[in-house]
């Protein structure tokens, strides 16, 4: 019955094959779980081998109350640096593959007092129009007072909250990745509430490109400074030679530094990806 | 102080240079290319120093952030890593020099930003090779994959993005299989450090979870290295990539994955587990045999030189996987020696291919007529590379095949030895067909005399160096085996 059906519809056949494969994988996974330690078992290897060290020693060794941050940014900080590089790489790839420097062929200008729309073909550059005209998207959306006003009020608070999340990463849940995403989303909200052109004019592409690289550079740079001061790469303890702070908390300051780097890169990469995807790389109009 | 930090400098120098290139591409475009060259130069110097240190004093351990191994991440460089690191970085550097004009021709305006992503790709490969931590390896695998997807999509305008998308789908499955395997290992042992895991595993040899972890790790890596039934992404991805990218992907990406497989087999799971507890070895050698034959036969069907070479890569993967899974010292020696040799000879062939593409644009067989007259130096390099793939004695390809065949006979795997010999013959047919087209199939029109139009000198010198290195490596292969591979295996 199933086979008859699959002969009728060409696409169905593939689905049957793939379900067989996923069934085999599912059985393999099930076979493995038979041997797993019990759910939540405090004596399982994952809970009893390295975790006690992190839980008991991390405040003493790193001076950071948030264990997640201390594992993420210190014990396994080298991994996190490359995770940040992955984000940087995503932004870079979006720029390389999508960015199109050709300007679009048509431009639309709206005469504000009368509402007449003028279309210019083959206008390579934006025309120097006076205050009576505005440069508009192909699909013009009327001015919306409520959305724009609410966003204008909200955006500064979102950004402030983003900075809080970055700065408090070592005390409470949060950190560079989360804070960077929140900050980036505030800029996207700006683009959605107004239009893409307004965002691109205010936050220049060059600035975003530089920030995206500088964030990772801060992270790796802190590591290199530690190396230059005689330690291993990312050994924050050595920073106490140049920073006039309590040596017990020096690793926490190192972590704060790298979290700031992560935040900058994530923020810039989010906006680069958004702007390039919605405008198909032209940076003129989009969502 | 610097002496102890070489393992970190290896990977940091290209990473920092990638970031600087990205910054310079906005404000000082002229500095991008020199930055890339200098950083890879520093990295090359560090890799030579590391190799010397390892040969003098044994394995180097480097603690990232200063934490002791199971807690923190460790770089662990022994003889096998050291030689693969030297190979990766020197090929990346030579390729960057050789491909300068080709990048300008094919990528044009965005070439400055392109160097940033190229350097990130090299960072990923170097990191994968140097690390001693299973999860760190995954993170760098992710960087390598992401950058290679982006680089491939910058190639052929019509087919490049599609080929890259296929690679994305399959590559992501491969990487997540590997991650799943590592997750299972962590559940069972609680550790991610390779040496530490290796010391914890023997008590868990009967465990089904460890078996599944092993299967997932191997499947993931086989997908990434394009072992025969899992190879479908490779030919298109490498064919439609820009010249500079296929020149580095073809020799390095698959070979580094073979290195990862050997590292997992020897350092993490151990020979005792693989060949005494599991009964998989014979099946894998059969799989490799089929891969060798299938790769060679599919190469016969191609009408485009670049695509033909990509199928030869599929065939060569079979050599190394089969050799490693023979389970004896000769086979493993052959597999490791073949990582070095195959990287060099594939690189030589793709350098020559890049020169031809630079001049002719298309490398369809019809366009190759009279090529020996047009580009004699390029073709000389190509012939040396081809001889090495076929396995003609003074070139290095012969020696690794010799070890592989000896290993196969010692094990009694006559099918594998047979496949090696048949594929060598098939490769001979493949390449002599190209030679025939290039030498004899001239246009019969008397007026249309062939004029010499050779690639620029900056592309010819690297090709010359690499093709000479094929003979030199061949002549010195006994010392590579005696000083590096055998001490590592003991």
Summed up, the helix count of chain B is 20
- Order of the strands making up the biggest sheet of chain A: 2-1-3
Number of strand elements of chain A:
3
The fraction of residues assigned to DSSP E strands of chain A is 5-15%
Enumerate the spans of chain B where pLDDT stays under 50 for 5 or more consecutive residues: none
Give an account of the 3D structure:
By secondary structure, chain A is mainly alpha-helical. Chain A has two domains: 2-52, no CATH class; 64-101 and 144-278, no CATH class. Chain A is 62% helix and 5% strand. Chain A has eleven helices and three strands; from the N terminus they run ααααααβββααααα. Chain A has helices at residues 2-8, 10-33, 45-48, 51-62, 67-75, 77-98, 145-167, 176-193, 196-202, 205-228, 250-278; strands at residues 106-111, 117-121, 133-136. Chain A has a three-stranded antiparallel beta sheet, with no helix packed on it. The longest helix of chain A is centred in the C-terminal third of the chain and has 29 residues, at 250-278. Chain A is globular. The relative contact order of chain A is 0.13. By secondary structure, chain B is mainly alpha-helical. Chain B has a domain at 298-490. Chain B is built from 20 helices and two strands. The longest helix of chain B is centred in the middle third of the chain and has 35 residues, at 243-277. The radius of gyration of chain B is 22 Å and the shape is globular. The relative contact order of chain B is 0.09. Classes of the chains: A mainly alpha (287), B mainly alpha (490). Chains A and B meet through helix 2, helix 3, helix 4, helix 6 and helix 10 of A and helix 1, helix 5, helix 6, helix 7 and helix 9 of B.
């Amino acid at each position: 019955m199933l086979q008859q059906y699959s002969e009728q519809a060409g696409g169905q056949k593939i689905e049957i094959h793939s379900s067989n494969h996923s069934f085999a994988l599912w059985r393999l996974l099930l076979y493995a779980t038979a041997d797993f330690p019990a759910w939540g078992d405090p004596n399982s290897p994952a809970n009893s081998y390295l975790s006690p060290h992190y839980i008991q020693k991390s405040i003493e060794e790193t001076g950071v109350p948030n264990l997640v941050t201390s594992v993420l940014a210190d014990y396994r900080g080298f991994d996190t640096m490359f995770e940040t590089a992955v984000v940087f790489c995503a932004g870079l790839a979006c720029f390389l593959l999508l960015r199109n420097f050709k300007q679009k062929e048509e431009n639309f200008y709206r005469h504000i007092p009368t509402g007449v729309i003028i279309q210019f073909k083959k206008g390579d550059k934006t025309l120097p129009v006076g205050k009576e005209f505005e440069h508009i998207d192909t699909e013009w959306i009327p001015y919306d007072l409520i959305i724009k006003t609410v966003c204008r009020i909200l955006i500064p608070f979102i950004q402030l909250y983003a900075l809080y999340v970055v700065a408090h990463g070592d005390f409470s849940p949060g950190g560079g990745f989360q804070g960077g995403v929140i900050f980036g989303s505030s800029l996207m909200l700006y683009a959605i509430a107004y239009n893409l052109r307004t965002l691109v004019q205010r936050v220049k592409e060059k600035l975003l490109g530089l920030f995206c690289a500088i964030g990772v550079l801060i992270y790796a740079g802190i590591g290199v400074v530690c190396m230059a001061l005689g330690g291993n790469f990312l050994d924050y303890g050595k920073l106490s030679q140049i920073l006039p702070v309590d040596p017990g908390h020096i690793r926490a300051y190192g972590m704060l530094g790298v979290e700031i780097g992560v935040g900058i890169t994530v923020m810039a990469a989010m906006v680069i990806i958004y702007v390039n995807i919605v405008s198909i790389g032209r940076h003129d109009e989009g969502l | 102080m610097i002496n102890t930090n070489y393992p970190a400098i290896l990977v940091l120098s290209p990473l920092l240079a990638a970031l600087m290139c990205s910054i310079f591409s906005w404000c000082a475009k002229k500095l991008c290319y020199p930055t890339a060259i200098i950083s890879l130069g520093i990295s090359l110097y560090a890799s030579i120093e590391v190799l010397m240190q390892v040969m003098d004093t044994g394995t180097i351990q480097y603690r990232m952030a200063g934490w002791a191994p199971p807690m923190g991440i460790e770089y662990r460089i022994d003889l096998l890593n050291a030689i693969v690191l030297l190979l990766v970085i020197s090929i990346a550097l030579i390729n960057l020099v050789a491909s300068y004009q080709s990048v300008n021709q094919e990528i044009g305006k965005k070439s400055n930003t392109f160097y940033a992503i190229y350097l990130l790709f090299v960072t990923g490969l170097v990191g994968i090779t140097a690390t001693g931590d299973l999860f760190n390896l995954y993170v760098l695998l992710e960087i390598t994959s992401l950058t290679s997807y982006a680089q491939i999509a910058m190639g052929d305008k019509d087919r490049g993005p599609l080929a890259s998308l296929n690679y994305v789908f399959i590559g992501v499955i491969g990487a997540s299989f590997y991650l799943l395997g590592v997750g299972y290992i962590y559940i069972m042992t609680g550790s991610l450090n390779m040496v530490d895991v290796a010391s914890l595993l023997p008590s868990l040899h009967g465990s089904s979870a460890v078996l599944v972890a092993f299967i997932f790790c191997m499947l993931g890596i086989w997908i990434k290295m394009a072992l025969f039934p899992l190879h479908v992404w490779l030919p298109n991805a490498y064919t439609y990539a820009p010249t500079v990218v296929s020149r580095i992907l073809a020799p390095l990406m698959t070979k580094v994955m073979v290195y990862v497989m050997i590292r997992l087999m020897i350092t993490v799971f151990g020979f005792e587990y693989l060949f005494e507890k599991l009964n998989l070895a014979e099946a894998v050698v059969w799989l490799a045999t089929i891969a060798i034959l299938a790769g060679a036969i599919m190469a016969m069907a191609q009408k485009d030189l670049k695509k033909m070479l990509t199928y030869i890569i599929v065939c060569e993967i079979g050599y190394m996987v089969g050799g490693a899974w023979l389970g004896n010292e000769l086979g493993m020696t052959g597999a490791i020696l073949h990582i070095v040799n195959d990287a060099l000879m594939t690189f030589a062939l793709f350098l020559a291919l890049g020169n031809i593409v630079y001049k002719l644009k298309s490398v369809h067989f019809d366009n190759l007529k009279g090529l020996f007259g047009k580009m004699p130096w390029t073709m000389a390099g190509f012939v040396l590379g081809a001889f090495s793939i076929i396995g003609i004695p003074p070139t290095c390809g012969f020696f690794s095949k010799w070890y592989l065949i000896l290993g196969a006979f010692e094990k009694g795997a006559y099918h594998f030895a047979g496949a090696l010999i048949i594929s060598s013959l098939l490769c001979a047919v493949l390449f002599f067909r190209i030679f025939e087209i290039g030498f004899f199939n001239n246009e019969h029109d008397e007026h249309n005399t062939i004029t010499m139009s050779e690639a620029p000198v900056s592309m010819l010198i690297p090709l010359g160096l690499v093709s000479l290195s094929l003979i030199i490596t061949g002549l010195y292969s006994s010392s590579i085996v005696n000083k590096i591979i055998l001490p590592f295996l003991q």
